[in-house]
Amino acid sequence: MDAISFGWLVLSFPVAGMLTVSLLWNRLPGRLGGWIASGAILGSFLSSIGMFVDLQDRPEHARSLVDSAWTYAATVDFKVDMSILVDPLAVFMCLVVSGVSFLIHVYSVAYMASDRGYSRYFAYLNYFVFSMLLLVLAGNFVVLIIGWAFVGAASYLLISFWYRRATATYAGIKAFVINVVGDVGLVIAAFLLLDKTGSLDYRGIFQATDNVFRVDDGTLVAACLLILLGAFAKSAQLPLHTWLPDAMEGPTPVSALIHAATMVTAGVYLIARMHPLFEMAPTAADVSAIIGTATLLFAATVAVAVTDLKRIIAYSTISQIGYMVLGVSVAAYGPGLFHLMTHAFFKALLFMGAGSVIGAMSAAQSIDRMGGFRKAMPFTFVTFTVGALALAGFPLTAGFFSKDEILGFAIARGSGYVVLAVVGYLAAFVTAFYAFRMVFRVFFRNAVPEARELEKGHLAHHEPENPASGEKEDTDVGFPGPEHHIAERSWPMKAAMGPLALLAALAGLVQVPGIDEAVDKFLEPTFADSRYADVHPSTGTEWTELGIGGLLGIAGIGLAYLIYLRRRSLRLQIRERFDALHTFLFNKWYFDELYELLFTRPVAALGRFGRNVVETDFVQGTIVGGATGVVRVGSSFARAIQTGYLRGYALMLLVGVGALALYFLISSS
Amino acid sequence: MDVAWFLVLSAFIFCIGIAGVLTRRNPLVVLLCLELMLNAGNLALIAFARMHGGAAGQVFALIVMVIAACEVVVGLGIIVALYRHRLPIDVDELSELRG
Amino acid sequence: MTIHLSIVLFMPLAAALVGALLLPQQVMRWLVFAATLGVLAYVVVMLADFDSGSRGLQYVTDDSWIPELGIRYQLGVDGLNLFLIALTAIAWVPCTLWSVFREHERPKLYFFNLALAETAVLGSFMAQDLALFVVFFDLMLVPFYFLIGGWGTGDRVRATTKFVIYTLAGSLLMLAGAVALGALSTPDGGQISFSIAELTRRSTSSGTQEWIVLLFAAAFFVKAPLFPLHGWIPETYRSTPLPVLALLSGVLSKVGVYGFLRIVLPTMPQGAQHFQELFIVVAVFSILYGSALAFSQDNVRLVVAYSSIAQLGFITLGIFSLDPKGAQGAVIQMVNHGLVVVPLFLIIGVIASRARGSESLSELGGIAFRAPVLATLFVIVSFATLAMPGSPNFVGEILILFGAFENKLAYGLVASAGVVLAAVYMIRFFQRTMHNRPGPAVESRDVDRLDFAAIAPLVAVIVALGLYPQFVLHRSDKATTARISAAQQVQSPVASRQSPGTRPVMVLKDVPKP
Questions:
Q1: Does residue C63 sit in helix, strand or coil?
Q2: 3-state helix, strand, coil in chain B (%, to 5)
Q3: For residues C487 and A322, which has the higher predicted lDDT (pLDDT)?
Q4: B23 interfacial to chain A (CB closer than 8 Å)
Q5: SS3 for A345?
Q6: Which residue, of A148, A482, A651, C205, has the greatest Cβ tally within 10 A?
């Protein structure tokens, strides 16, 4: 079989899994549904490996294959096929997406075991992975947009999975709507490109780009900015990031899926995929780089202040995606995508660890209530710490290589990009700090009652309440069931976290500067046409930069150690000293409030205005009222004639006959 | 004799009939005046028939008489029915058709 | 010349007449249902048999009807109305089935009206003679008048009155327009004709066309409805029985916009072109206004009602973009909108029956719990309604938007805000009924078999079209393009006149758009 057939298989497996699980939803015994779904994703992963192997067998220039299954829509000057494109970038994404998703599926088999919506959950999960794979395999803009929107829909379904929670449904609608904004951006961008290049296929567009557009052509920049709108909506970059922290309302493995393997990386993928356009429109690429940098700093600062464990990791995701966006925007495609991969590993791991801890806390999520889980949950502790080390960029872990390579590239591009890199380094320090803020506050210090009970072998159980609002939980739809699951007691969770911990620790070794650089080499055919292909820091410089990054990471960890373990009074002192700053950060820079003020309220007010004023006064009053008024006047005249007096009618008859006679008399003479 | 005289007479009788229908309130008199109008029509028909020498006009006059007879029967029937219901025998009081 | 179309056309009416006069009502309702199935079967065969390569009419029936006035009994199918006929056939089946299993007062009259309505709607889609179109267009009003007035709920008298006055006023204006068009286009010494093909060949001065177009537009905008002629919507939607409402909103509303493509654009291209800007403004305003109102309604029927205004706005935008892509998008979107609205109203019926008849969002909620099948059907329909990529509606909407961008970029951009608003109101609608905490009177029960049999096939059609929208595009492509070509040709010289010194047509792509 060749790579294209494998490509179609990659897509078929999750669809088959989804259909099986959803059609047999009430007939599958026990955990079988989860295993079927996991098997489907495993099938996708193996097919991705098949693609990978087949692609490696081909010569470098022939590693981009397109195949069309059927004509999707065609009319006068618009033709779209249901086509996929298999090239190293797509294969790379497929491997990461299906691989990490598979582990998340396995984790979920145990984590969601006692949920009432077990089958529904796995059907959604498969659908989610299918959408993401469709997105990365798409061969033209329309299929991309379909995958793009499917991802949004799946995320909506999963975020509001526990739909009895008002906060969850609100978060779902928020995520969906922001994603639709991005979709619209993509649609308009697709039109601009079709209009100029006459094609919607990637190949057609890229081939025409050089002929049709000048550098920084107005239309092209507009198209690229619209693409960025789509990418930023999905990747939760400023200013469209607000949905992501709220997306924590979904079950924890879903957070892992959204944040690590699928969805948020889509924006990064898109920018990388569109690199021929962005390189022709450097202005748009610069905008993207600047926004990426702003986001990575912004999110890191917020992560320092918030106290909800999952939301800390969520902001860390926003921040890390910012690094990737910066990377692919400064033409550091290899490092950017490499960071995407390593981030997928350690972020999935962190979420799984968080899920385990939340299980032990009986669904409480605030780190203020946690502490001392080190002894009670040794496995979770070790794996979580490995993830945090990778996130912090501790030397020789995965994050160490990937993050600092991006910054190295930015420096190599010179001039203004150096500033971006400096900001990146600053944020790296903050990152290390908040990563270990989590570790120290959750696993060290005095053991909370839940941890002590767990040490005695008893898993805590509280009255279920919504961690976001404190409301009493309606447990009908499954959350949180009477059972909780922690990694220490469920082998599928361990089986998922173990490999991820290994990868988070060691995956950096595939791309050691000057030694192997496997990711760069594999992706090279896709980016061979890049005009920055030869911009690359020398190996020596790169090691220096890695060194700086490593030192900053260690410094951040040290500071966290100082504040949270050594001198705890320091924490409150700092907080009191910078109270305004803390409030500002704690409220996430007031973005939610701003949007509420700018969009939600005006639209709602407009709707009310329409309903109360336009509908009643104008439509019903003026138009309907006017029309009925005319009818009423007319009918009252007609009624006035109907006196009921016989002689009245007789007179009218007479007058009528007389008038007729008169008319004929006059006209005949 | 000139046909015009017959027509003038017919018009006179017709106008008397109309005046009666429009002004009188007793249904019996209204009915009588209606008869008067019909007969005015008959007179005109026969006059024209004689003038043209055809029989069609006379046949029409006969038909009108038959219709008039039927109408009187129905009209008197209604008046009797009203009387039976002790309703006022006055056309102005019978204004059920008012809109 | 074939008799096939006449058979399809009168099958429901004949079945209803026979049933009403000869059979007991229990048998009669099944006979009417069988007739709708028969129509569907016929249409399916027609879909398979249809020659997609031809742009002309097929299965033509052409007989003299009132020779003195040049009115002919002329029916025909081309790519433009093929799928609207299919939509009618598809939509009537579940709505009749839904009614068959529910009790009504005076059932014979009810089913007779239902069947008469199908004949009338099919007739107005098939008619190729303007006078015949007007006849069927007004005939549609009769059964719906009785259905709403006789079996409606709430303040049905007021609703019926409003509905009738509005649509009748529109119809009369259209009648005047049709007569004027027929009379004024007759050449000196020629025979008057209402045949649309003949009218297309004849020409009238552009001044005449302009006021006639306005008369037609009044009727079609009321039927659609578009802002500001939608005043009849709230009462009518509140009072109409659900299966009838599904047909009213899903199928009837398409007759108006279909009329633009069938009659107005081919016969009065200059007039249509003259009002392009105005109609686009009306369309865009309807999109935004309908969406904003759908977002703030509490009654579930009204959410769909106002969303229809927005959707019909999109369709009108596509038509009057006077671009092949836009028109093609409008055609496919007419079909799609019908396909989503019908199940949507049936689902509303299911939901209301689980909440003791309540149709108010504030009292609903949480139904999904024991109703996973219902929730799944509903979520698919909702996603299709908001034109999520992957649904057939997306193809319609993207073509409409592309068409609008091509000629009227600014309006297109404003209209695309409607896509976002659609997401807001549909998801809100889905969530407030199926998710969140259950409302006070809500009882979560899954869809039963009969309702499932009515709703599921429609959902299956939606999914199938989402996978392969080309099925529609392929067949409707040529006819649609032909219908707008006249108006398009009017447009091009105008556009090039506005940019002096540039070469026409070729240059259009490079001229900066407004």
A1: strand
A2: 80, 0, 20
A3: A322
A4: yes
A5: helix
A6: A148
A614: closest CA of chain B, how far (Å): 36
Residue that has been written with the tokens 């009238």 in this structure? C204
Q: Which helix (H) or strand (E) holds C328?
A: helix C324-353
User: What is the pTM for the complete model shown?
Assistant: 0.84
Q: Do residues B95 and A645 touch, judged by C-beta distance below 8 A?
A: yes
Task: Kindly state the helix (H) or strand (E) to which residue C59 belongs, with its residue range.
Answer: strand C58-66
CA atoms within 13 A on the CB side of A624: 22
pLDDT tens column, A568-591: 777 777 777 777 777 777 777 777
- The answer to whether residues C81 and C258 touch, using CB atoms and an 8 Å cutoff, is yes
* Partner residue opposite A75 with nearest CB, options C383, C386, C477: C477
Whole-number Å distance between alpha carbons of A361 and A439? 15
Q: C touches which chains (3+ CB pairs under 8 A)?
A: A
> What domains are defined for chain B?
3-84 (1.10.287.3510)
Residue keyed to tokens 């009057």: C320
Question: Taking the domains of chain A in order of start, what are their residue ranges?
Answer: 3-586, 592-668
C abuts B (3+ Cβ pairs < 8 Å): no
List CB contacts (< 8 A) between A194 and chain C. 402
Please confirm whether the linkage preceding C225 is cis (ω < 30° from 0).
yes
Tell if the CB–CB gap between A647 and B22 is shorter than 8 Å: yes
Distance separating alpha carbons of residues A435 and A220, to the nearest angstrom: 40
Terminal alpha carbon distance of chain C: 48
- Count Cβ atoms below 10 Å from residue C56 Cβ, excluding itself: 13
* 3+ Cβ–Cβ pairs closer than 8 Å linking B and A: yes
Angstrom distance (rounded) from CA A435 to CA A422: 20
- Does A239 sit behind a cis peptide bond, omega within 30 degrees of 0 on the bond before it? yes
Q: What is the ipTM of this complex?
A: 0.87
What Cα–Cα distance (Å) separates residue A53 from each residue in A136, A335, B5, B25? Answer: 18, 22, 122, 111
Whether residues A188 and C413 touch (CB distance < 8 A) is answered with yes
Interface test with B, best of A632, A645, A653, A655 (most B CBs within 10 A): A645
3-class DSSP assignment, residue A70? strand
Q: Which residue has the tokens 């960025």?
A: A228
How crowded is residue A631: how many other Cβ atoms within 10 Å of its Cβ? 13
Report, as an integer, the average pLDDT of C26-37: 90
Closest CA to C384 of C505, C250, C193: C250
- Smallest CA-to-CA distance from C44 within C97, C91, C90 is with C90
pLDDT for A43-75, tens place per residue? 999 999 988 888 888 887 778 888 888 888 888
Cα–Cα distance measured from residue A347 to residue A386, given in angstroms and rounded to the nearest whole number: 11
Nearest to A181 among C369, C402, C420 (CB): C420
Q: Which residue of B has its CA nearest to A643?
A: B98
Q: Which residue has the tokens 């001198």?
A: A567
Strand partners, C74: C62
- The answer to whether the CB of C392 falls within 8 A of the CB of C460 is no
**The dihedral of CA C349, C354, C355, C361: what is its sign?**
negative
Distance from CA of B15 to the nearest CA of A (A): 11
Nearest Cα residue to A391 out of A327, A296, A298: A296
